[in-house]
Every structure is written in structure tokens, then in C-alpha cells.
Write a structure and sequence with these properties.
Layout lengths: L10 E4 L2 E4 L23 E6 L34 E8 L12 H9 L19 H9 L8 E4 L8 E3 L2 E2 H5 L3 E3 L2 E2 L6 H9 L7 H10 L9 H8 L4 H23 L3 E4 L2 E4 L8 H17 L5 E5 L8 E2 L4 E4 H5 L5 H26 L2 E2 L2 E2 L4 E6 L15 E4 L10 E10 L1 H10 L19
Parallel strand pairs: 3-12, 3-17, 4-19, 5-12
Antiparallel strand pairs: 1-2, 4-18, 6-7, 8-9, 10-11, 13-14, 15-16, 17-18
Length: 447
């Protein structure tokens, strides 16, 4: 079949619906007019945050280089080990007190993507600094429908005192549009789904969703005609890829709908929270799947995902850890508590593995979505008992379109700023800047 030029901005439209498409062969011209090789897929980046530090003895590989074994906490990443960079020795100096006293959890989260010292206040005069994701969004966000996407499992307040005199805004946000304006994360998968795929005309989103619900229709039922017309223009490979993508959209929509079913208890009808699963793992998986779809359809190339706010005291009773996470992180070197911290850490890494394998399963030309992404995962605290901010647990997954040499454990000189990594990530996203936060130069040995 003749290769048809198809705009990367093509969407399927219907009642209150605008569904972006995955990267299809028809969107990649075989050769440019100058006879150069075909275009490459765009690069994406996401920053995933987990709270309260790690059990570092079971996090850090013993060997440096490409001949390392994954420790207990990192074992769930074995299927994507070749796509990993384990980075040791990085420091977040601005999470330290630096004269401001207690408040390590708020500072850790606020400075994680900013590399700036948070102003100690629980009033309206918050100040921190623009985050790395928003530096990129300012420069390349215009290329997509959404400059960035902010996700999380824990809601948070943007005012009040949440940590030793620090505003709740610091301990609930990692994305900052300006030094005083956080980007609030969305915790409701239904709201994320509607944002990605529904017509965003003011006042119509809820109205159109109500109409779909009334007639028990999927959002895809309203784009069937558009989809069938598009398929007639596509080759068999693209047709199959489009079907798989739309099936993923429908499957996620169905999972969200199941969280909204009405529970009948005698004469009472009790509605579950709209779109938010009861089980923590299900919540993470739904948000991860939505992030994958957003990247796959090129709705955004920049994301943040907070598994839990720093200082979170969530119980992990479902996996045999009924105590609160924050309480356990102050383990006092008690082996029993440390083992429970290790279990929580491993659970979080297993959720990262879920996301990475989903990205790996999406093909883009001769590569995958994971190959074309840079997923930074970590915490602003190393050992939760000491509240230290050096020797941080940091991973980078994905090859950044081939610009990263993965499958290695790299150890850096002590006190190397974490923000040096971000300079390298920004370079690879086409959003280069000379300085960021407390950076001292670009991180070496990434490629």
C-alpha cells in the first residue's frame, strides 16, 4: 500500500471527544525531501517520586559498571535491567536544613525537581523555584496538546502547616510552574481520562460524560465512524496498531467505570469515589496506564507522578505491613522495621516495573516508547531514619532515544548535585539550559 502522509496531530472526533493517536507508520515519511533518513519519534521524560527514603543496604548494587546484580529492592526491574541506569552518590543539598531547622520531608519533595531551598513558611508567601519539568514545558510544551501532565495518588493542600513550619504546598507538590505556583497533581483517574480524551470546551465535559453514561456508551462509540474512515487509509500494520491502542483506551475506561459502580446495601445506594480505586496498586496502575497513553498519543512529552507525598504514613496492610510507612522509616536500625521498609520499597519498585514494561510494549517504528523515554525515579531522602539527602536512591530508565547508555550502575563523587542529572535530561529533550537549581555542571558518564 502506498505510504500516506498523515499528520501527527490527527485525532478521532465525536461527541465531546478528541482522541489523539499513537505514532503510526503513515505519520513517518520514508524520506525527507533531501533524501535523509526517516524522522525519529519524539523523546519523553517523566519524574516519579516516592517518599521517606529507602533501605539503602538492599537498594544499592555492590558492583559498578555493567556487571552488576540487582539487589532485593530492585529485583522487580530484572526484565528491563538493560534499560536502567542506577545512579549512586547524588545529593540534594537544598533539602538540608541549611539553617532552617526541621522539616526534611517538605524540603525533600519541594527541592527534588527544583534544586532550590524552600522558604520556611506556612503562610501565603511560599517560594521555592521553577521545577525541571516546567523548564522543559516552557520550551517544548507547545508541541503537544498538554505542556505537561501531573499525577499522584495522594491529594494535598496548598496551604496550612504540614511539616515543622513548612507549608503543605511544599510536601504535596514536586512540579512548580513558578517559584510561588505549584502545579497541583491530579489523583482521580476519571478526571485524567476526561482531560486526555474529552472535548475540553468549558461546561461540556460533564454534560457529554453524563450522556455517555445514560446510554451506557464508551467514549470510543462516538468516534467509530471517524476511526473506520481512518483505517481505510492505513496499511495492515497501522490498522492493527490502531486497534490495539483503541482497545487499551476502552480497557482503561472500563476499569475506571468499575470504580464508580453503585453499591446497593438494602435500601441504601452508596457510590464509590468517582474514578479512584480502593486498592492502592490499582490506583497506581490506572494512573501509569494513562501516562503511557498520553505519551503514546503524543498528548504530552513531560510528566510527573507522585506515588505518595513525602512524610506519608500510609499503611501497607495488604502486603503484611500494617504500620505506617513514615513511622517505620524511623527504624532506629531495628532489623524488623528495616525489613518492612524493604518490603514497601520493593512494592514501589514493582509499580515502576509495571510502568516500564507497559512503555516497552508500545512500538514506535523500529523502537519502543521506553527506548524513547527518560523515566527518573527516586526520593529526596536516602535513609529515612537519618533524614540524609546525600547518596540518594536514583534510577533513570529508558534510553532517551538512544542518547543514554543504560544497563549500568554508575557511582559519582560524593556531593554531586542531583540537578547535574537534570541538565543532561534537558539537553536530550531539546530544552537545554546552562544552569539549573544548584547544578555545578552536566553529569558525566550518561552516554
Amino acid at each position: 500500500m502506498k505510504h500516506l502522509p498523515l499528520s501527527r496531530r490527527t485525532v478521532l472526533k465525536g461527541l465531546g471527544t478528541a482522541i489523539g493517536l499513537p505514532l503510526l507508520e503513515a505519520m513517518l515519511p520514508l524520506y525527507s525531501l533531501a533524501g535523509q533518513a526517516k524522522k525519529t519519534p519524539p523523546r519523553r521524560m517523566a519524574f516519579l517520586y516516592v517518599p521517606n527514603g529507602k533501605n539503602m543496604a538492599h537498594w544499592t548494587p555492590k558492583a559498578v559498571g555493567d556487571k552488576f546484580d540487582l539487589p532485593s529492592i530492585l529485583e522487580p526491574l530484572q526484565p528491563v535491567k538493560d534499560q536502567l541506569l542506577v545512579l549512586s552518590g547524588l545529593t540534594l543539598d537544598k533539602a538540608r536544613p541549611n539553617g532552617d531547622g526541621p522539616g526534611d520531608h517538605a524540603r525533600a519533595m519541594a527541592s527534588f525537581l527544583t534544586g532550590r531551598q524552600a522558604k520556611k513558611t506556612h503562610g501565603a508567601d511560599i517560594r521555592i523555584g521553577i521545577s525541571v519539568d516546567q523548564i522543559a514545558a516552557q520550551k517544548i510544551g507547545k508541541n503537544t496538546k498538554f505542556p505537561s501532565l501531573e499525577l499522584g495518588c495522594d491529594k494535598g493542600l496548598n496551604s496550612g502547616n504540614c511539616d515543622s513550619g513548612y507549608s503543605c504546598a511544599y510536601s504535596a507538590n514536586i512540579s512548580w510552574r513558578s517559584e510561588a505556583t505549584p502545579n497541583a497533581k491530579e489523583i482521580n483517574p476519571r478526571a485524567v481520562f476526561d482531560r486526555l480524551f474529552a472535548n475540553q470546551v468549558k461546561g461540556e465535559v460533564d454534560k457529554n460524560r453524563a450522556k455517555r453514561d445514560r446510554y451506557h456508551k464508551s467514549i470510543l462509540d462516538f468516534v467509530t465512524e471517524d476511526a473506520n474512515q481512518l483505517k481505510r487509509r492505513l496499511g495492515s500494520t497501522d490498522q492493527r496498531k490502531l486497534d490495539e491502542y483503541l482497545s487499551s483506551v476502552r480497557e482503561i475506561e472500563s476499569r475506571i467505570a468499575r470504580t464508580e459502580e453503585v453499591i446497593v446495601n438494602g435500601s441504601l445506594k452508596l457510590a464509590k469515589p468517582a474514578g479512584i480505586p480502593k486498592e492502592y496498586q490499582d490506583h497506581i496502575h490506572l494512573l501509569a496506564d494513562l501516562l503511557v497513553l498520553a505519551f503514546q498519543a503524543d498528548l504530552t512529552r513531560i510528566g510527573t507522578f507522585v506515588f505518595a507525598n513525602d512524610g506519608s504514613n500510609r499503611s501497607y496492610r495488604f502486603m503484611g505491613v500494617p504500620e505506617g510507612h513514615h513511622d517505620l522509616s524511623h527504624h532506629g536500625n531495628d532489623k524488623r522495621k528495616l525489613d518492612k521498609v524493604r518490603k514497601i520499597n520493593r512494592f514501589h519498585v514493582a509499580q515502576l516495573a509495571y510502568l516500564l514494561e507497559k512503555l516497552k510494549g508500545v512500538t514506535e517504528g523500529d523502537t519502543t516508547l521506553l527506548h524513547n523515554s527518560m523515566i527518573v525515579y527516586g526520593s529526596g531522602i536516602s535513609d529515612g531514619n537519618r533524614h540524609n539527602h546525600d547518596e540518594l536512591p536514583i534510577l533513570v530508565a529508558g534510553k532517551g532515544g538512544g542518547s543514554l547508555k543504560t544497563g549500568r550502575h554508575v557511582r559519582y563523587k560524593r556531593e554531586t548535585p542531583l540537578t547535574n542529572l537534570y541538565l543532561g535530561v534537558l539537553d536530550r529533550m531539546g530544552a537545554a539550559t546552562d544552569r539549573f537549581g544548584d547544578s555545578t555542571g552536566r553529569l558525566e558518564s550518561l552516554s
